[in-house]
Amino acid sequence: MKPQILPFIALGVLGTIPAASAASGIFGTGTVLSVNGTKTLFATTLLNDTRHTPINVTPPTLDLDGIPSSVGTFNPTVGDTLTLRGGDILTFKNGTDDITGATIHYRVDGGSFQTFNLSFNENLGGGGDQRWYGEGANVNLLTGLSNGDHTLEVFYTSPFTFSGGSGTHTINNGTANYGFNFTVVPEPASALLGSLGVLLLFRRRK
Q: In a designed cystine with 60, which of 12, 33, 39, 196 is the match (CB 3.0 to 4.6 A)?
């Protein structure tokens, strides 16, 4: 039970009832990335809390300090990989409220959001707290990207029902979403050709 979090959650509730009436919500979120083969869960809210740790799967490496300034620099031509595996959402419910699902929404460099649904993973303690988790999205984030800086954006939703209707809890960083920055670098041959071109231009000018 997380009544103290209701004022925060109320800002992100979309539904058919006033947010103040909701007796459920989201109190923690995270995104699971595979960085060069290492599966890591990055906490985006509820930092430094091990309740993000899922059960019934090979545990991911936990990064509970928040989103890093960059998740890395990647050269796909030498085998570097960056994959969106999924995420986690921690929810609470009281009274007649019931959380009925959980979804992570994602996109790279703008455009339309895609979705990946998370599954119920575990009840947390004896109250109404629950973890939702999934890691089967397997989205190659480097596909089709040009060299340079890029951003993966994510936000999280959980639909809920209550005695008088239904709604959706949304955690989206105040509509700014949560951004994971990364860089794609040139393949070695392209970088070498670029250097040779600059050198030839310099020699011609001399």
A: 39
Burial degree of 55 (CB within 10 A; 0-12, 13-18, 19+): exposed
Number of domains in the chain: 1
Helices (H), the chain: 6-10, 188-205
Contact 52, 41 (CB under 8 A): yes
Return the SS3 of 158.
strand
Domain assignment of residue 23, given as a range: 3-205
Contact 90, 111 (CB under 8 A): no
What would the two tokens of residue 133 be?
């988790």
Q: How far is CA 153 from CA 112, 118, 119, 120, in A?
A: 11, 17, 21, 23
Q: Kindly report, residue by residue over 17-27, the tens digit of the pLDDT.
A: 344 446 999 99
Q: What is the DSSP secondary structure assignment for residue 113, as one 8-state letter? A: P
Q: Give the whole-angstrom CA distance, residue 67 versus residue 47.
A: 10
- List, in order, residues 6 or more apart from 86 with CB less than 8 Å away: 31, 32, 104, 116, 118, 133, 134, 135, 136, 137
> Which amino acid, residue 1?
M
pTM of the model: 0.83
